[in-house]
Amino acid sequence: MESDNGAFMEKFTLPPFSSSGELPLAGLTFAVKDIFDLEGFVTGFGNPDWARTHTPAKSTAPAVLALLKAGATCVGKTVMDEMAYSINGENMHYGTPKNPCAADRIPGGSSSGSAVAVGANIVDLSLGTDTGGSVRVPAAFCKIYGIRPSHGVVSVDGVIPMAQSFDTVGWFARDPAILKRVGNVLLPPLDHPLVTPSQIIVAEDCFKLLNIPIDRVKQVLVKSVEKSFGGQVLKYMDIGDYVKDNVPSLKHFMNQGDDTKVYSIPSLVALSSAMRILQRNEFKVNHGEWVSSNKPNLGAGLKERIWEAVWAKDDNIDICHSVRTELRAALSSLLGDVGILAIPTVPGPPPKLQTEASTLETFRARAFSLLSIAGVSGFCQVSIPLGLYDDLPVSVSLLAKHGSDMFLLNLVETLSGTLGEHIDAAVKSSL
């Protein structure tokens, strides 16, 4: 396990359905988060009490079957946060997968093992799930590419639900070409060729949430866009103001608690509050009875959140649904068919292992302000690695309209070459 960075729950080989070298994923290996059903294996959901109380799966999840049919070989199941209820990547039962970029830092979760397996060059690609950020966060922390696809476009059959109106099947890769090859297998085909984006909106207020120099992230992206598509596509705005003005139902969640004293985008703090209410409500419906009956042994911090969900009496569910509808309409209007929104994936480098709980919670709250944009709208988002700053991984994210997944993956691949040039220049200038 040490040689595999602790990424795997169990290693085995599921060969592709065909050995044809003409298949789109021929010769590639992949790993699967322990939330996907594999026929004959118990799906463990990150917790030994869950594994103990459930029987082996009778069939394999369609997303996994699609990769096998496309010529890829599955080599094992990966560690995840318990019940997918964290973005840290720490698991007290099975160990915390070692971040390949920074061994003293968390790998990010809940798809921690899947991200680490790719980042450590153990597999070519891996499957994870993203409900609140569980692909985007570990991709950012492990310096790899990760996609949260548009909600509902990839089958979640055979995947244990966390909160199904947010759950997505996402994937990781070290380069955008493989990320796109997987997209060609799992996503609906693109009905038009790659075009220049109509606009790439840089969310200025979101970049101000970063705890590293803003230019180290923003300027790398801006210069790459200018070289690839021309500076005329770039626009700058405060997305928080736009959301506040165009999502009227958010007023029910504004100025709640102390978050607005700390974080500079009150409307996104409110958006993340609505997202958490909906997610914990769905989690309670899905798993509240099992948690109450079995009283599983859960890790610190995560235990409190899971029981909070089980005991929650949320009265604003209908308003939360209104927020979702209004946000999707507002962002669709803003971006159009081929517009892009650029934000940081996370507010900074991965926190250290065993970070004090209150400090970690502050980071989580800032992160969810960013993660909730795609989470609530259902839009697709790709996290793109931008190298290292002070020896820690840096990333940026691009978001596109619901259903524009292949357009986004094509655009990311196009940008990747010029990004590499400007990443190198930024690193040299910071030395």
TrEMBL record:
Entry similarity comment: Belongs to the amidase family.
Superkingdom of the organism of origin: Eukaryota
Gene this protein is translated from: LOC110786200
Domain annotation Amidase: ranges: 22-175
Record GO terms (molecular function): hydrolase activity, acting on carbon-nitrogen (but not peptide) bonds, in linear amides
InterPro entries in UniProt: Amidase_CS, Amidase_dom, AS_sf
Pfam family, one: Amidase
SUPFAM superfamilies: Amidase signature (AS) enzymes
Protein name: Amidase 1
